[in-house]
Amino acid sequence: MLATIGVREVAVVPRPKVGVISTGDELIDDGSPLAPGQIRDSNRLTLRSLLRASGFEAVDLGLVRDDEAAIEAALLAGVLSCDALVTTGGVSMGDFDFIKVVLDRIGDMRWMQIAIKPAKPLAFGTITRSSDGVAVPVFGLPGNPVSSMVSFELFCRPGLRQMSGFGSSQLDRRSVVAIADEPLTRRADGKTHFARVWCEYDLASATYRVRSSGAQGSHQMASMAAANALAVLPDGPTVVAGDAVRVMLLTP
């Protein structure tokens, strides 16, 4: 199309290359049976899939054990080869985690508590790349799988889209107003809740309709896998059937 109108050159922005790293002696990723105290490293695979689906180049920086030297080496190697880094776990207030110690030493980080549920803890900062002095962004997401995915959608994906050259109106997922077909349960706690839901357009009523995709515990992955949207529930009482609610669509 450009050639037909005589355009020979266009300005482009490189696709960000994003490294994903998991740390922790409790994590395994080799498919072996779980020993007491172990959990499977699902976040690294999930985040790489989300990155690719969002148009970014995902780089697997591996699973690193709880060793400061090994974590520092992995982070610095990632900074040299990537445009941004994503880590999971060790961001909650009061957590002692090796990655937090290392990031505080080699980076310029902020450790935050956001008034949302799930995904309350968040870290963001930069590590300066030694080769060219560029400050490489680092997104520190919660270790809980559902919280990690919600944090990615709310904070990481918009930031990476801005790096990709998208304008301010194109950073967030598309939102619609939908009618709740059933109660979306919550309690007043000073936080905005992001409920996992299924949203679809109803031709008969010319409205979007929304219902829960399942149990909303932050450890319950099935409802996240079954969701195609997040309902934004402001602080307050339960949303009842028939109420209008803002919904962030997770699919194009």
In short:
This protein has 252 residues and is an alpha/beta fold.
Describe the structure.
- There is one protein chain.
- The protein has 252 residues and is an alpha/beta fold.
- The chain is 23% helix and 32% strand.
- It has helices spanning 43-53, 68-81, 98-106, 145-163, 221-225; strands at residues 17-23, 27-28, 39-40, 57-64, 84-88, 108-113, 116-117, 121-128, 135-141, 175-180, 192-202, 207-212, 229-233, 244-249.
- The strands form 3 sheets. Strands 4-1-5-9-8-6 form a 6-stranded mixed beta sheet, sandwiched between helices.
- A hairpin with a 4-residue loop joins strand 11 (192-202) and strand 12 (207-212).
- The protein is globular.
- Residues 19-162 form the MoaB/Mog domain.
- It is an enzyme of class 2 (transferase).
- Pathway: Cofactor biosynthesis; molybdopterin biosynthesis.
